[in-house]
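Problem: given the chain below (484 residues), write out its structure.
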Amino acid sequence: MKFQKSIIFTLFICSVSLIISGCIKQFEKDQAPNIILIYTDDLGYGDIAPFADKATITPNLHQLAKDGITLTNFYVASSVCSPSRASLLTGSYPLRVGIPRVLAPHGISWAENIWRTGLNPDEETLAELLKEQGYNTALIGKWHLGHAKEQLPMQHGFDEFFGIPYSNDMIPSVNPSYPKLPLIENESIIDENPDQRFFTKRFTEKTIENISKNKNTPFFILLTHPLPHIPLSTSPEFENKTKEGIYEDAIHEIDWSVGQIKSKLLELDLEENTILIFTSDNGPWLAYQTHAGSAGNLREGKNTVFEGGHKVPFIISWPSQLPEGKKLDGLVTNMDLLPTLVAWAGGTKPRLEIDGLSLIDYLEGTSNQSPREGFLYYYNEDLQGIRDQRFKLLLPHQYQKPAGDSINPGQQDRFVTDSIPLSLFDLWKDPGERNNIAEDLPEKVKELQTKLEREHQKIMGGRRPSGIYEGPEPPTGKLWIENY
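Solution.
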């Protein structure tokens, strides 16, 4: 009798434990996940582990991949920064939302007609959609979607902004027409031409501060490192740390940043329910040679529609929800992050049409195929190609590439103009786009040409304007007019 009671009691305790455990797991699943999205600048497909043999230089990223999922066919919607960031935040092709080109301050000849341009306030950004779900939202690092006060991150759904309004090379020492590079906190300039050696460290510290401050509420942090965009620099403790040159030193410090963020999440018991993403805005700026990254075995880099410009590393970890150590080869884009993250947070897509698709079933493993069937390649306003799951068609066009001359470290190589005829590539067999098989597969060429025109017309028919700053032009050397 005592033995039976003991068994019954033991079974009761076990049942209660299982129920409690199940309830805890369900409670964790029902909590809105924290989201940290790290967006680097000009980082190439061959720059970090596990996409290249870089485990000693990027050990934290290598471990992040072991803890989560790597996507081997992740594409950004533009091979330059402003359009890529517009796509990330709106879930749309840059042409659809009126940001097909790189933005820059006034006074620069090539920016004469675009310095007033910024992201349209009518666009519902990733930050705004998450904010509607109760998230605290912060952008830390580089913005580059409009630099007038009414175009800054806090006008687009971010509760906080700490960083620079555009690229770190848009400085007077590069071109005297540029105003002094401002460091902005929320909507105030707190420094001009700050010491760039401390960018990675300062933005990491600000991220950790934000995590600690918002540990009891869902938060979204978009950490947009200005590096490894030129001019390259590192904090003193990372100078010559890798013995491989300043580019690798800068990557190593970014990897350190990832490690610091993960440590803080562990310390605060937030890691299990935090989505941590690491990727890049576009491929490497190869014209800077020793100060540029690597696209691995891919062709060309930034400023082109070849794979080296659009295909970038991507790692995502969410320990309580996603599998560990998984590699997915399906076609995915940065436009797909908005509908995916917003849905995970319990929200809905924007009211305006977007081009992104939810990846939830694919990432969680309930579907073995990506929902994305194709991708259009644009350079500025020009449509130059399309791919499906396997094949890529490029229209005839000219492009610029570095000449490969010997130059001094940190200086831009001269460009030469090259051209490509109508070309078809089998990306499964030829990811480096070396073998044009258009003549061998004329029916595939025709099929992709038809799809290209159809999908392009959809975007053209749904184009929306950018936001335009209507105020006066600032004085020479100033970002804003006085007392504005």
